[in-house]
Amino acid sequence: MTSDRELLGRSPDELDTPYLCLDLDVMDANIRAMAGACKQNNVAWRPHAKGHKNSAIAQAQVAAGAIGATCAKLGEAEVLAAGGVRDLLIANMIVGPHKVRRLVELRKIADPVVAVDHVDQVEPISRAMQDAGLQCRMIIEVDIGLARVGTLPGEPTLALAREIAKRAGVELAGIMGYEGHLLTLQDLDEKQKKIHAALDVLVETKRQFEAAGLPCPIVSCAGSGSYQISITHPGITEVQAGGAIFMDAFYKHKCNVPGLEYALTIPTTIVSRPAPDRAIIDAGRKTLNIEVATPLVMGRDDVRIRSLSAEHGTLDLDPSAQNLKIGDRLRLIPGYEDLTVALHDKFYCFRNNKLVEVRSIEARGFVR
Ligand SMILES: Cc1ncc(COP(=O)(O)O)c(C=O)c1O
């Protein structure tokens, strides 16, 4: 088997399929565009790393102006901290003695902010940090309509803030909310109105904190499907949008995110041609995710993914595509980058169409 090293310098078509093909030039342009949009609106950028799970990409984002990173799992935060990123929002609840012990260790090398929505998450962390002579920042996740985790706005959030403020070992850093239920609204006017209304709830909560003498330096929100609207909302201090550095069919066509290009693709090979209007490719559900949005075939409106089984992909071919034959290659655009990257071990990274680096998806499988 050819080693990754031997592949350096080759073009995307010279590598065996399927694999994750990352165009670093396009990704860098997306990073610059996202960082620039945040800067223009005086909002900090804390990009979510759950999609790329790679410390070098997080560092590239910091170099472009990001203040740190957002993580969905403690394991992701540990990887990024080991790679030198300090300011890490863990936008998830840390529960149980194993994780609390790891959080204490993480605090020794980084400055995490941990999301909470109940005093039962606060208490063990407060005790463990005190025992270690440390202090850890906490952010309250407020439910702004997503109906996932989160305190109810108003008095329940203030009550939890008081619980944090009175404890040692923890420091109240602010509030976050995720408007993830509004990303796919197709009417732009309605999408804008509903996102601003959801964020009003968050900013009003900050006002209540200040009126009660509670600190609230961070007001954090937004994902790739909403950040272009959320960064314009007064009172928001930072956004968590991350996955759009890769772009995908979900962000582009379901969330209608303009101005960013496809950096991540999956080259694939036609392995069977059982019928004139049907081709089978070597990429199925173990290569691509299809739940959130159907992957697309790059540059071809006349070829569509009909279905995926574990290791086969079935394509519908229009008459203009029926000259495709066994051995031909196509480039797929992920339906949803996050759940696609999580299936792979490595990014094959290209510049000017030449392989320059093979990067490990370091936190892949780190679900704890
Ligand atoms: C808390 C939180 N913030 C932000 C995001 C958005 O992430 P991305 O920009 O990678 O889509 C998500 C996505 O699920 C999330 O759960």
Instruction: Give the helix proportion (percent range).
Output: 25-40%
Spatial gap, N to C terminus: 33 Å
Mean pLDDT: 98
Question: CATH superfamily assignment of the largest domain?
Answer: Alanine racemase
Q: Using the coordinates shown, work out and report the CATH topology of the largest domain.
A: TIM Barrel
Structural class: alpha/beta
What Rg, in angstroms, do the CA atoms define? 22 Å
CATH top level class name of the largest domain: Alpha Beta
The total count of strands amounts to 17
CATH architecture descriptor of the largest domain: Alpha-Beta Barrel
Low-confidence stretches: none
Report on the architecture of this protein.
The protein has 368 residues and is an alpha/beta fold. It folds into 2 domains: 10-20 and 260-358, D-serine dehydratase-like domain (Lyase, Ornithine Decarboxylase, Chain A, domain 1); 48-241, TIM Barrel (Alpha-Beta Barrel). It is 31% helix and 23% strand. The chain has helices at residues 4-7, 24-40, 55-63, 74-82, 97-109, 119-131, 155-165, 188-211, 227-230, 249-254, 337-341, and strands at 21-23, 44-45, 69-71, 87-90, 111-116, 136-141, 170-176, 218-221, 238-239, 264-275, 278-281, 296-297, 303-308, 313-317, 329-333, 346-351, 354-360. Helix 5 (97-109) crosses helix 6. It is globular, with a radius of gyration of 22 Å. Bound molecules: pyridoxal-5'-phosphate (PLP). Residues 48, 51, 91, 178, 180, 223-224, 240-243 line the site of pyridoxal-5'-phosphate (PLP).
